[in-house]
Specification:
It holds the Pfam family Dyp_perox_C. The protein has 402 residues and is an alpha+beta fold. 22% of the residues lie in helices and 19% in strands. Bound molecules: protoporphyrin IX containing FE (HEM). Protoporphyrin IX containing FE binds next to strand 7, helix 9, strand 10 and helix 10.
């Protein structure tokens, strides 16, 4: 993943049990005390900040995406109380502490880079009497011709993204978030995902997806001068978007991969589908993984090195009037589908300051038939407004709900 490491507080674990595990020398392995947490367990991401966690945080190895609908009769007051509870829980768990009445699922583990991120869907605003404050950025995404979207697994009043570098820590947070919902909201859909584990490769490397491709190379970098403008709503946002200052819009798509078909392609054909080499992610126009694509380069046969319909060509910002997004996906695998093929693919999550200058124009182009389209199917869709991060003493969404 190319997402930056903003907001990481490495090793600054908070909970009493954890603090003792990472501090005193007598806790070193073999010294009789409990062994020190590895850096994976001890890594803590800050809950409070300008932006919510889980956007520029490096990809975690486990993820849960959950959408909730407000319960019948629950309105703005109940929603505000829920976001207050959820924020308190997220802050506690992200610091490696146990909430009261804890289930014990994550006992002995550190925060493991846990992040919990909250968003509001289009339908939230009517149910809470806040329609006047719904930004146009939450207008429904256009229908794409290749969509096979299941409405029951799409959209929702509220959305929570959980990520952690440990499966139990992630599940622990998921249970806490579900319990907090209480009578105020019900789970509408839930999806579970994963990425490669920290330490699985000899050095940090860009992730691979279930097609085996290096995926995430050309993501915007936090160090790019236009990163903030592309990914986050401006701090001085006004009008119906004022409460979204420093926030970001998430487009969530469950994209099934037709793996039997994909795996039947020769390596050469697979590489032409994306326009990059499979082994190291280098563009077919030459160089190494990070070499910019040369979209005009032709081979000795006079043909474009990166084919006309290659996914990386069609999705490149220079082909889409500068439209860019931060892709931050998880892979998923839910066994074998009714059709006998793997129910596996990508929980595609992308972040942008405005979906009409990010996901929408790019997906419009891809939908006309890039080379990858024959091997994937978009099965669900969601669009959520994730407000800016909570300041100390504040809860996420307070500027909308108070
Ligand atoms: C690039 C895979 C869906 C937008 C890439 C790359 C791969 C890839 C391997 C090249 C490496 C990189 O720069 O990350 C996939 C797979 C998908 C999928 C397997 C579905 C299962 C999408 C969708 C969108 C999208 C739905 C947006 C509508 C992009 C963008 C780039 C990219 C913007 C970077 C292009 C550039 O600037 O060079 N994708 N992708 N992808 N993809 Fe996808």
């Amino acid at each position: 993943g190319a997402a930056g490491a903003a907001g990481l507080v490495i090793g600054a674990a908070g909970g009493a049990g954890i603090a003792s595990a990472v501090s005193g020398d007598d806790s070193a392995p073999g010294a009789g005390g409990s062994p020190a947490l590895t850096s994976v367990g001890a890594t803590e991401v800050a809950f409070h900040g300008r932006h919510q966690p889980g956007i520029t945080t490096p990809l975690q190895s486990r993820g849960h995406l959950v959408a909730f609908d407000l319960a019948p009769g629950a309105g703005r007051k109940e929603a505000a109380a829920l976001l207050r509870r959820w924020s308190a829980t997220a802050r506690t768990l992200m610091a490696g502490e146990a909430p009261s009445g804890d289930t014990g699922i994550a006992r002995d583990a550190g925060p493991s880079s846990l992040t919990v991120t909250f968003g509001f869907g289009r339908t939230f605003f009517d149910r809470t009497g806040l329609t006047a404050r719904r930004p146009t950025q939450l207008d429904p995404l256009p229908a794409f011709s290749s969509d096979a979207v299941d409405p029951k697994r799409s959209e929702g009043d509220l959305w929570v993204q959980i990520g952690a570098d440990d499966a139990l820590v992630a599940f622990h947070a998921l249970r806490a978030v579900q319990k907090d919902a209480g009578d105020a909201a019900r789970v509408r859909w839930q999806m579970n995902g994963f990425n490669r584990s920290a330490g699985a490769t000899p050095r940090p490397m860009t992730a691979r997806n279930l097609m085996g491709q290096v995926d995430g190379t050309n993501n915007p970098k936090t160090t790019d001068p236009d990163f903030d403008r592309r990914i986050f709503v401006p701090a001085d946002a006004t009008g119906a978007q004022d409460w979204m200052a420093d926030g970001s819009y998430a487009v969530v798509r469950r994209i099934r991969m037709l793996l039997d078909d994909w795996e039947g392609l020769s390596l050469e054909k697979q590489e032409r589908v994306i326009g990059r080499r499979k082994a190291d992610g280098a563009p077919l126009s030459g160089g190494s993984e990070t070499t910019p694509l040369d979209l005009d380069k032709r081979g000795p046969d006079g043909k474009l090195a990166i084919p006309d319909n290659a996914h990386a060509r069609i999705s490149a910002p220079e082909q889409n009037g500068g439209a860019a997004m931060l892709r931050r996906p998880f892979s998923f695998h839910d066994g074998i589908g009714a059709d006998g093929t793997p129910d596996a693919g990508l929980l595609f999550v992308c972040w942008q300051a405005d979906p009409l200058r990010g996901f929408v124009p790019v997906q419009r182009k891809l939908d006309r038939g890039d080379a990858l389209s024959a091997f994937i199917r978009h099965e669900s869709s969601g669009l959520f407004a994730a407000p800016g991060g909570a300041a100390e003493g504040e809860y996420v969404g307070q500027r909308l709900l108070e």
